[in-house]
Amino acid sequence: MTISRLTSGLKSPWRVLLFVFPWTACLLTLALQEHSVGYTREMEPNKCRLENKTDGIKAFCSNLRLKSIPQDLPPNTTTLIASHNIMQLLQNDSFENLTRLVSLNVGSNQISHLDSRTFLPLSDLRVLNMAKNRLTHLTDDVFDSNPLLSLLILSSNCFSSVPSGALATLHQLQMVSLDHNNIQKVDFTAFRHLNNISVIDLSRNIISSLLASDFEPLQNSSLDSIKLAYNMVRSLPFGTFSFLHRVSTLDLQQNAFLEFNVNSFLGSVIISELSVSYCKIGRIVPLKATSLHNKTTLSIDSVEMDGNEICSIPDYAFRGFSQTRTLNIIKNKVTTMTNGSFCGLDSLENLDISENHINSLPSGLFRCNPRLLVLNIARNEILVVNPVAFCGLSVLLKLDLSHNFIGRMDTHHWNNTALRVLDISHNQYTYINKKISSFGV
Ligand SMILES: *[C@@H]1O[C@H](CO)[C@@H](O)[C@H](O)[C@H]1NC(C)=O
Ligand SMILES: *[C@@H]1O[C@H](CO)[C@@H](O)[C@H](O)[C@H]1NC(C)=O
Ligand SMILES: *[C@@H]1O[C@H](CO)[C@@H](O)[C@H](O)[C@H]1NC(C)=O
Ligand SMILES: *[C@@H]1O[C@H](CO)[C@@H](O)[C@H](O)[C@H]1NC(C)=O
Ligand SMILES: *[C@@H]1O[C@H](CO)[C@@H](O)[C@H](O)[C@H]1NC(C)=O
Ligand SMILES: *[C@@H]1O[C@H](CO)[C@@H](O)[C@H](O)[C@H]1NC(C)=O
Ligand SMILES: *[C@@H]1O[C@H](CO)[C@@H](O)[C@H](O)[C@H]1NC(C)=O
Ligand SMILES: *[C@@H]1O[C@H](CO)[C@@H](O)[C@H](O)[C@H]1NC(C)=O
Ligand SMILES: *[C@@H]1O[C@H](CO)[C@@H](O)[C@H](O)[C@H]1NC(C)=O
After folding, report:
1. Whose CA is nearest to atom 6 of ligand 8?
2. Where is the signal peptide (predicted)?
């Protein structure tokens, strides 16, 4: 391939770059050659590029302005990449002669219609990517003959609801992506008996409410991840997550909760990581001591709350979060904390309250968190460090107080004997006592 042919297809800044740095073009040409060396053969008339893989032919048919699936591909084609074409529909006979397909990518086309028997011949199909098309629904029987389907990508289509009927038969399904659609309501009914499901992505839709009953079908499922980020969920009613007994990640970031009500987490909730980052949360509503009865086995290992609008952390803000080891409240507007703010967080090991507007640390601030290992208070507005704030932190290893306005540092009263890293850079010291060096700074 000559450089001129290559460059004619590139936008002008690249042409300039290639002109100035001819070696760039060589690298590019080499890369292209390497990609097509040996096993490749061009086929007329559809110009798909074929690669001979050990498990069958891999056909590259992207960007060819195809209106339909090429019919002259070898019958032993196992992977077909036909993305970025102009197909508007797939028909009953589209895959008649491609019965050995294992992986099919028809993403970035204009597909708005699938005949109900389109995928019937594809009994080996495991991966199906139909992202960036115009699908609005799937018929319930469309995947009846694809029992091995384990990865299904339906991102960026026009679904207004979860195609539950079609999904419910996919017993090997491990991941389904339905992000970037117009789905208004969660619907997990399809997953009731899909024991292998690991990731459900419903982010970037227009879901506005969540109810505890919505999650009931997932109660026995050990999902790795439920993604509900970038939706429009405004409130989390009492016990919303009470059916999530063992989910790894629940991603709710970029919704609009306005408040973080601990009531929402009552029940036998077991979640490894909960994210409510960038949810416009302005207020934490703690649980009353009496609400924490013995039916609650709230276990959330890590809570991400960065990028919200929290101004104050009330007493026992996280009552019930006794299993939580990591709490991140970075980039909020916290100014006010009390000696009870972090009470209830009995197992807390990592606390990050950096990038807030904290100007003082009350005495006994961390009195309820004897297991703290890493504490980050950087990028706040602290003028004076109150040594009694760190009282009782006998296993604290790392303390970051950098980027504050600290002018005086007196650590005589500190007895944080385990402290190994103390970052006090970017402050405004006029006085630092000697003991600091004993922390290995
Ligand atoms: C694919 O490889 C086989 C041997 O493994 C060879 O016989 C066949 O000609 C190759 N086909 C193509 C299209 O290169
Ligand atoms: C696929 O079929 C072609 C033609 O029948 C054959 O040459 C090739 O070896 C086959 N390749 C594989 C990987 O089975
Ligand atoms: C596809 O197959 C289904 C089921 O047999 C049939 O109802 C439908 O009419 C077929 N579509 C076309 C376009 O032939
Ligand atoms: C599939 O292959 C058969 C035999 O080569 C041919 O008759 C038929 O037209 C092909 N199907 C399509 C949809 O092209
Ligand atoms: C889940 O996947 C494993 C293999 O990955 C398989 O053995 C098992 O049958 C699948 N479970 C279900 C319910 O299909
Ligand atoms: C989960 O398991 C329990 C106990 O085995 C059963 O009663 C319940 O119906 C199951 N739930 C679902 C959604 O499968
Ligand atoms: C649970 O709480 C109820 C009343 O709040 C009490 O009667 C019961 O003994 C408690 N059960 C356990 C196992 O602690
Ligand atoms: C916490 O602060 C309150 C109010 O400032 C005070 O009455 C209380 O004694 C403090 N508790 C501890 C354990 O320091
Ligand atoms: C650290 O200091 C506090 C108060 O100054 C005291 O209550 C606590 O016993 C001390 N801990 C150790 C390990 O010296």
Report:
1. 339
2. 1-33
